[in-house]
Amino acid sequence: MAKVFIYPTTSLILSDLVARFGHQPLSAALQVREKIQTAGLESPPLQITPEDPKKGLKYAAVEVPSGVRGRMSLYGPMIEEAEAAVFIHDADFSFGCMGCARTNELIQFLLRKRGIPVLDLLYPRNDEEGVEFVAAISKFLQELPGGGT
Amino acid sequence: MKEYTPRYVGTVTKYVFVESPDMTPSDLAIRAYEISKGVMIKETCFGLQITGSEEEVDQIIARLREFDPPHIFVKDRGFPPGDPRRCRANLGGARPGYFGHEFEISLIRHVSKGIQELPGRPPDQPVHPVSAATPVRLDARKLQKIIESQES
């Protein structure tokens, strides 16, 4: 079973397909869950504290906006853990934790820089494309260590 | 800043979406309640939210998936159900994250089709995933609707 970074990290489709084919999806929810289940000082809504942009300094320079560094404190550990990545490039709009274009560029850059296998896709627009979409993800995941089903 | 005491520590919450011609979210909820054994289940308009220990939640989801595998989709959720920081009852308007689900659910029928077709596909058949250069083709269902509208 490989750890697969999914982009958008909030994607239902990717999260489901990666798990369905026997691998572990690395999604934003895992990091958010860890944050909100850890006791500390109250900092709603996501329990991002002033410490988090400091942790983000590992991934982005100090002159980069704190919003990027705060987000990188969530995604950075997942990027380090990832053994493969699946990107969907044409999310109609970015939402929630994915709502920062510069962070999204940095995530893709860091993942590609690691040299792990990456699959680039677009959302399917009809049934024929849906068949190819699922087949591409299935084939990609089968070739990863652990194979999938 | 005041002290923060988290709720439901050690639990996982997962969304179960159903987009099926044969099953409604309430059908799924009834079946989930039958096998829940005390795990927290919340029925929603799109499916369920299940909260409990990871092992229990995974067992229930594995059972639920069997009812309609190509049309049931599962995703992790960071917050437990009803959390005041996310619940629309407290915030008003749609829950943050809803728009992303709404967008993906609008095209998830194509993914369901792909899941249904996958077992019959030869393993050595080359894949041609969509790229930016792929022209948009007319969906076979839309063509069928056009034909039917002309015939009637």
How would you characterize the overall build of this protein?
The complex is a heterodimer of chains A (149) and B (152). With 149 residues, chain A is α/β, with parallel strands linked by helices. Chain A has a single domain (3-142), classed as Rossmann fold, CATH 3.40.50. Chain A has six helices and five strands. Chain A has helices at 12-20, 28-36, 51-55, 66-81, 101-113, 127-142; strands at 3-7, 24-26, 40-41, 84-88, 118-121. In chain A, strands 2-1-4-5 form a four-stranded parallel sheet, sandwiched between helices. Chain A starts with a strand and ends in a 7-residue tail after the last helix. In chain B, 38% of the residues lie in helices and 16% in strands. A four-stranded antiparallel sheet of chain B has the order 3-4-2-5, covered by helices on one side. Chain B starts with a strand and ends with a helix. At the A-B interface, helix 1, helix 2, strand 3 and helix 6 of A face strand 1, strand 2, strand 5, helix 4 and helix 5 of B.
State the CATH topology of chain A: Rossmann fold
Proportion of residues in β-strands of chain B: 15-25%
Characterize the overall form of chain A: elongated
Secondary-structure-based class of chain A equals: alpha/beta
Question: What composes the largest sheet of chain A?
Answer: 4 strands, parallel
Strand adjacency order, main sheet of chain B: 3-4-2-5
Report the order of strands and helices of chain A. EHEHEHHEHEH
How would you sum up the major sheet of chain B? 4 strands, antiparallel
Mean pLDDT value of chain B:
90
Helicity level of chain A: 40-55%
Multimeric status of the protein:
heterodimer
Distance linking N and C termini of chain B: 67 Å
Order of helices and strands of chain B: EEHEEHEHHHH
Q: What's the alpha carbon Rg of chain B, rounded to whole Å?
A: 19 Å
Strand content of chain A: 5-15%
Number of strands of chain A: 5
The gyration radius over C-alpha positions of chain A equals 16 Å
Using the coordinates above, name the CATH class of chain B.
Alpha Beta
